[in-house]
Specification:
- Helices cover about 45% and strands about 20% of the residues.
- The protein has about 600 residues and is of the alpha+beta class.
- It has a six-stranded mixed sheet, with no helix packed on it. Strands 3-2-1-4-7 form a five-stranded mixed sheet, with helices on both faces.
- Helix 4 runs antiparallel to helix 5 and helix 9 packs antiparallel against helix 12.
- It is globular and about 85 Å long.
- The termini are far apart.
């Protein structure tokens, strides 16, 4: 038995128990310190890897732009290593458990999710694409001896498809990262990642569509025939301009040939539309949309224009084409930056600097006979086509030209193959009506010439759009503002050729420009009102495919301008979406400007 009294033994046990508690507390504190140190060290290391990964992305952009394919593969491997290291550093059990600690845990969880997304993109998007980039690049689309080699494009399909799928998944994962309680640097990093992935995902999806469509559309499975519409912006149509010239292209296993050409004026008039017109189209643009080749682009819906043009070609030549493309002289001027000057059979030299003026203005003074004008346009088209099909151009400049033309709405494509057309739909070349998403609400501004002349060479256009929530129900009020100006010389009636002014043949005094302006809103929007130069104005209100439309006719003498404003009420679910406007591409196409909204009187400003 112990010699200590009971009270002593109790005190000893208490002392022992206290020491145990102290040791446990000390151990917990040491573990906490260790965990914080562990996470801190690994966090710093992970941050370094992620920052270097961002640097690798910038390097990749530069290397891809310069065409340094060997360096691309090396940088892609380094990016994969950095992403993998960041994922590993944020994936151990201590980091995992700490994600559930109040406040700090949300930050750790967000950093972990960033690391996982970066690693996924590096491994399953960047690395697969870098493995084929040496064989597939912008040069893959350049003809050699008149033929585009389709094999590198086909070989790239699996890698680009995998990258597209990965980026779309990564975009969703990044959007799901909770930043409601994260520190500012973490919140900012997540936002940058989300924006980068949104852009990359969109670009990858576009590239994926191209590599999926290109082989078949370039005749891999048999020859294809396409109708090419040369649109003349000097006489505006909603879709761009009148199809002044039309050509048939044939493509067979990458070989591209220009087989035949015809003047747009040689088609029609037909007794009735060559295909049935939707009631909306007939109401807005008239039956002439389907009765003249030069009027098929009165509608901004390129799928309608293309099918009408295809049928007219079939009725005239007995040939059924597989698709329709459209291009204008402004895009041609961009392409000439890539090809360099082109010598025409007429003795003229076509350059990127003079192409627009020569093709849309000077030609009418030089050749008064419309037949001679048509021959000049045909010669210009065939000469540029010959240089492009030979591969005698700068590939990067050529891609840049097509990209700029597409962004300005100057390039259009339609396929008779329903599967291919589904791939084309909703892309920039589709020529679709405005759409609305949670991110963006689009409006359309479409101009049609009413003068019956080539005076639109002198028409300038400025478009602005804005939106504000002016109602308690949260539905956004949006306003589209269009300003057009006749920049022709004061003596245009006498100084310009009669073919340019129209000579008054269609009821418009020479020198003046008559224009129909149609403003479209997304479907389910409601028309609120319109004004012209600050005063309420009566307009034609109708719909086209469910899109509310307000259309106004204007008449401008040289030097005059007018401003047309239209207000619409949108859906509450799109209240936070940005607003954009697409418009008929004229000779000059400026950027859409922001517009402030006066909720008290939005239509009049």
């Amino acid at each position: 038995m112990s010699d200590l009294p009971e009270s002593g033994r109790t005190a000893a046990r208490r002392g022992s128990g206290a020491r145990v508690v102290l040791w446990v507390v000390l151990a917990l504190v040491l573990l906490l310190i260790f965990a914080v140190a562990w996470i801190g060290i690994r966090g710093v290391l992970a941050k370094g890897h992620l920052e270097r990964a961002v640097g690798d992305v910038d390097t990749l952009r530069s290397q891809l732009t310069s065409g340094d394919t060997a360096a691309v593969q090396s940088t892609a491997k380094h990016l994969e290593d950095e992403g993998g290291a960041a994922r590993s550093l944020t994936g151990d059990p201590i980091w995992g458990a700490s994600q559930y600690v109040p406040f700090f845990g949300t930050n750790l969880r967000a950093v972990r999710q960033i690391s996982v997304v970066v690693d996924d993109v590096a491994r399953d998007a960047v690395t697969p694409v870098s493995s084929v980039v040496g064989d597939f690049s912008t040069d893959s689309f350049a003809p050699k001896d008149g033929r585009i080699d389709l094999q590198p494009i086909e070989d790239a399909q699996p890698a680009i498809a995998k990258a597209t799928s990965t980026l779309q998944r990564a975009e969703r994962d990044a959007e799901a990262i909770d930043t409601s309680d994260t520190l500012s640097p973490v919140t900012s990093a997540v936002g940058q990642l989300q924006n980068a992935l949104q852009s990359a995902s969109t670009q990858a999806a576009t590239a994926n569509r191209i590599v999926e469509l290109a082989p078949a559309m370039l005749g891999h499975d048999g020859d294809r025939n396409y109708l090419l519409l040369f649109q003349n912006n000097a006489e505006l149509r909603a879709g761009g301009g009148i199809p002044g010239a039309v050509a048939r292209l044939q493509v067979d296993d990458g070989h591209i040939s220009l087989l035949s050409q015809a003047a747009g004026s040689s088609f029609g008039p037909y007794d009735q539309p060559v295909l049935p017109l939707a009631a909306d189209t007939a109401s807005l643009y008239g039956s002439i949309t389907g009765e003249y080749m030069q009027d098929v682009t009165l509608t901004p819906r390129f799928d309608v224009s293309a099918q009408l043009a295809r049928e007219m070609w079939k009725q005239k030549f007995g040939e059924q084409v597989d698709g329709v493309l459209a291009i204008d002289p402004v895009t041609l001027s961009y392409i000439l930056r890539a090809t360099g000057p082109v010598q025409l059979p007429t003795g003229d030299t076509l350059t990127s600097d003079n192409a627009v003026k020569l093709l849309l203005s000077d030609v009418y003074a030089k050749y008064t006979d419309p037949t001679a004008q048509d021959a000049f346009f045909a010669a210009a088209a065939s000469s540029v086509f010959e240089k492009v099909s030979s591969g005698s151009f700068d590939t990067k400049q050529f891609i840049a030209a097509l990209t700029q033309g597409t962004s300005e709405g100057r390039l259009r494509l339609w396929s008779a193959d329903q599967g291919e057309q589904r791939q084309i739909d909703d892309t920039a070349v589709a020529g679709s009506l405005p759409s609305a998403t949670k991110a963006t609400r689009q409006f359309g501004v479409y101009l049609n010439d009413g003068t019956g002349s080539k005076m639109d060479y002198y028409l300038d256009k400025t478009v602005a759009v804005g939106s504000s929530i002016c109602r308690k129900d949260g539905r956004p009020t949006s306003v589209v503002q269009v300003t057009i100006k006749n920049t022709a010389p004061a003596d245009a009636a006498t100084s310009l050729p009669e073919y340019v002014t129209g000579g008054g043949d269609f009821g418009t005094e020479p020198g003046k420009i008559k224009t129909l302006i149609a403003v479209y809103a997304p479907t389910n929007a409601i028309y609120l009102g319109s004004s012209q130069d600050g005063k309420q104005v009566g307009v034609q209100t109708t719909s086209d495919g469910g899109h509310p439309v307000a259309q106004l006719q204007t008449l401008l003498a040289p030097g005059e301008s007018t401003t047309f404003r239209v207000a619409f009420l949108g859906e509450a679910k799109f209240a936070n979406a940005g607003v954009q406007a697409i418009s008929t591409p004229g000779v000059r196409q400026g950027k859409v400007e922001p517009l402030s909204i006066d909720c008290a009187n939005p239509a009049q400003g």
